[in-house]
Design brief:
Strand content of chain B: under 5%
Oligomer: heterodimer
Number of strands of chain A: 24
Radius of gyration of chain A: 25 Å
Shape of chain A: globular
Strand content of chain A: 25-35%
Helix content of chain A: 25-40%
CATH class of the largest domain in chain A: Alpha Beta
Strand order of the largest sheet of chain A: 6-9-10-3-11-12
Distance between the termini of chain B: 52 Å
Largest interface: A-B, 35 and 30 residues
CATH topology of the largest domain in chain A: Rossmann fold
CATH superfamily of the largest domain in chain A: P-loop containing nucleotide triphosphate hydrolases
CATH architecture of the largest domain in chain A: 3-Layer(aba) Sandwich
Distance between the termini of chain A: 56 Å
Number of helices of chain A: 18
Largest sheet of chain B: none
Structural class of chain A: alpha/beta
Largest sheet of chain A: 6 strands, mixed
Structural class of chain B: mainly alpha
Amino acid sequence: MPTVLELRDISKSFPGVLANDHVNIDLQEGEIHCLLGENGAGKTTLMNILYGLYKPDSGEINVRGKKAEIHGPNDAIARGIGMVHQHFMLVPVMTVTENVMLGVEEKRNGVFLDRAKVAKRIREISQLYGLEVDPDAYIKDLPVGTQQRVEIIKVLYRQADILILDEPTAVLTPQEVEGLFKVLRSLVEKGKSLIFITHKLKEVMALANRITVLRNGRTVGTVIPGDVNPEKLASMMVGRDVNLVVPKKKANPTESVLEVKDIYVEDERGQMTVRGVSFDVKMGEVLGIAGVQGNGQTQLVYALTGLLPLQSGEIRIVGETLKRGATPRHILERGVAHIPEDRQRHGLILTFPIHDNMMLCTYYQPPFARGIGLQEKVIMDNAETLTKQYDVRTPSIYVPASSLSGGNQQKVIVAREFSRPIKLLIASQPTRGLDVGSIEYIHSRIIEKRDEGVGALVVSSELDEILALSDRIAVMYRGQIVDIVPAAQASKEYIGLLMAGIRPEDALKSAPSVTGEAERVF
Amino acid sequence: MSANKEIKKTEARSSLAKMFGGSAFQSLLIPTLAVFIGLVIGGLVIAATDAGVAEAFKNFSSDPGAAFKSIWTAIATAYGALFYGSLGSPREIIAGFKALQATGDNDAFLKAIYPLTESLVTATPYIFAGLAVAIGFRCGLFNIGAEGQFFMGALGAAYVGYSLKGLPWFVHLPLAILGGGLAGAIWGAVPGYLKAKFGAHEVVNTIMMNWIAFRLSDWLLTGPMMTAGFRPVTPNIQKTAELPRFFEDPLRFNWGFVLALVVAWLVYWFLFKTTLGFEIRSVGANPDGSKYAGMSVVRNFVLVMVLSGALAGLAGSAQVLGVDHWVGQGFSAGYGFDAIALALLGKSHPLGVVLSAILFGILRSGATRMQSLAGIPIDIISIIQGLVIIFVAAPAIIRWLFRIRISTGDETVLTRGWGK
C-alpha cells in the first residue's frame, strides 16, 4: 500500500518544553492510524505542525512522496489534509449547508450563494459514507454526534483524503461512538486515510490498523493491535505498569450520608435542568451517575454543594436537612468534599501558588489561621506534605497552579479535599482530560476513601469510569434519573441505551438491565 | 549543607516574588522601562514644541550639528528644571547641611531640601488614593470614585477639625483623621452595596458618586460649612487637629507622609497576611472558585469598597490636616484620577503604589518649577503620565521594544471586563 503521508524527524520546542523530539510517523493509504499518548505527550503539537499552525524546529513532511511546505490550514487543505477538531468549529445559528460552505462559498452568477448545489453535494457525501445528516437543519438543533458528522462532511466537502480526528469521542455517548466508528471504517474502505488521536485504549484496540505511541514528545513505537493488549499499550504510554481497572473489594454500605428527595433545580439561565431527582448515598459505597453531559448532572452537583439554589425538594446531608439558601461553606463544614467538574473555574485559583490552593476551603480555620492572621509556616508545611503524599509533580509549592498540567492540578484538588475529615465525597468528572496514570491514581484514592467509610457520589460521562468505580449506577437523562442498577451486574448496553434516552422498558427489550440475576434496586 | 542554602535562596526569592505576584525582577522591570520610555517620548514632545529647536532646524542643511544639539539642549533644560524643581540639588543640600553643622543656621539647608519635601508632600495623598484603587483592583473592582471619596474625606476631616474645640491634640487629631476616612468609606460603601445587592456595575456608580460629591461639596462650601465672610471655603481647622510639620514654614512636609507609609504597610499586611485579605485576593482572581471555597463574593465586594473609600478618604484627611488646613472649591487636583494610573503602575501592590506615588509626586511638583524655569507647560507631565500608563497597560509594547521574553508566571489581573 502506498504511503500517503510521512512525518520525518519532527522536533518542536517551546520555552522550557521539548514537545516533539524527532517524531516519526507514516500513514498508508486506506488505514486508520491511531496516535496514542497521554496529555502533554505531544500529539496535538504534532498535528498542529501537520496542519500548518506551528512551524517545526526541524524535520520534514512528505505528502504522497513529495516534500510539503505547510504554512497554514489552507496549505494543508490544498494537499488533501483535513482536520476534525475536538471542539467543533460550527456556527450554531446557521444550517448544515451554510456551515459546510463557509469559507468556500459556492456562488451563482458570482453574487448569490448556491445553497442547492452545496446541499446536493452534501447528500451525495452522506450517501457515500453513511453520514446521515439533513443539510437544511440548523446546527443548534442537532445532537452532538450529528454535529460531529457535519464536521467530517466539511472536511470531505473540501476533498480531503487524509483526515485527522483529534479526540473525537470525548463528547459522544457509547452508541454515538459506535456510529462514528462505522463511518470511519466506511471512509477507509473508500480509500481515505485517517489519523485518529486519542488517549482511550479501548477505542484504539477496536479501530486501529496501526498504533503509534507517543510519550514525552518521543515516538515509543508503532505496533499493530494484534500484537498488543490494552495493558501493554498503557505501559507504553505511561512508561510503567498500570492498573486499568482499580482493584476493589466488595462495598460495605452502612447508613445514608446523602438523601435527595424529589429536587428541582434551575440553571443560571432559568432552565429547569434537574426535574424531580431522588436517590441516596450510603457511607462506604460509591453511587455513580452516568449520563451524557448536559443532562442536568452539573446542576444537580451545584445544588448539592450550595452553588445553585433548590427550587423544591429536600436534601439531607449527614442527617441534617439543608435549609433554603444553605451556603457552600455550611455544606463543606458538614464534612463534604467536592471535586468540581470544572477544575479551572471552581477548583483552583489559578493565579495563586500551590500552597494557597492546598488550603483554599479551610484557610479561615486553625491550624491555617489564628484569628485573622494566616499561619504561613503551617500553610507551607501542609503544602509540602500534601504534594509529596499525593505525588503532585511541581517544581515547588510556590509556583502558580496555572503552571501545572491538568493531572497535577486535579491532584492538588484531590489532596486538598481528601486531607480534611470528610463523610461525603461529591466528585464530578473527576478524571476528565486526564491521562491513564493520573486516572489510575485518582480512582484508587476514591476507592480508598470509600473503604474508609466515606459515601461517594461520582458523576461522569465516561461510562467506563462509572463502571470501574461504582457500587450502584444511576442513569440521568434530561434532568431525571431513569434507573438505578447495582453495578456488579450492570450491563453496559442497557446503561448506554438509557444514556441515549431510550426508556427503561424499551431498553430492556434489546438488552437486559443486569447480566446476573440480581434484583433491580430503586 | 549546600542543599539547605539552596532552599533558603528559593524561599527568599519566592517571598519577594510573592510580594509582586510574579517574579520580582520582571514586575519591576516593566514599570521601570515604561517610565523610561515615557520620559524619552515626553522629551521628544518637548523638543518638538520648543521654539529654539524649530529655529535651529530652519538652518538644518547648513548646520545639522546645531540642530541636533538644540534638541538635546531643550530636553536637558526641561528635565533639568523638572528634577531640580522636585529633588533639589545634592550639592546645595550637602552645603546646607554643612552650614547647619558649622553655624547652627538651618536657612540654607531648608531651602535646599524644600523641593524634595514638596515632592513628598504631593506624594502623600497619592499614596493613600493609590492604595484605595489598588485594593479595589485586588478584588476585581474598578473604583473610579477615589476622587469623590477623596473630596468627601477632606470635608469630613475639615468638619471634625474645625467644629470640635478644646480637645487635646491626641484626641482631636485621630478623630479628624478618622472623620475623613469615615466620610470616604460611606462614599465607597454606596456603590459597593449597589453592586452586591443589585449587580449594578461599580464603574458607573462610582462615577455618579463623584458627581454627587462635587455638587454636594459646592453646596456645603457655600452654605453649612462656609466660613464667615464671602469666600466659599471652610473655616481653618483647630491647631489641635493639624498633622504636625517636621520643619518651619514654608516647608509643609508633615507626619501625613509617615502615616501614609504606615497605612501602606498595614494594607500590605492585611492583603497578604490575613484571612480577610486572602478572601479579597481570591475573589479578585476567581469569583467562581471563591464561591466554591465557601467565600461570600458579594460581602467581599462591599468590604473592599468600604476600605477603598476609607483609604481615599484618608488621602483627603492627610491633605487637609497636614497641608491646607481648610477646604475650598476645586480642592482636589485630580488626585483620585491619577490614583488609578499609579495603582496600575504599581501593579496594585502597596510597595509598588508607594514607589509610583513618589514618582508622581516628583513629576507633579517638579512640573511647576519646569514651567517657571524652562517655560514648558505643566501639561507635559500629563502626557508623560499618560504614556507611562499606556506602556504599563500594554506590556507587550515594552517587551517588544526591549526583546523581553514572556515570563511563565502569571500577570496580575487588574480588572475584568465591563460585562461582568
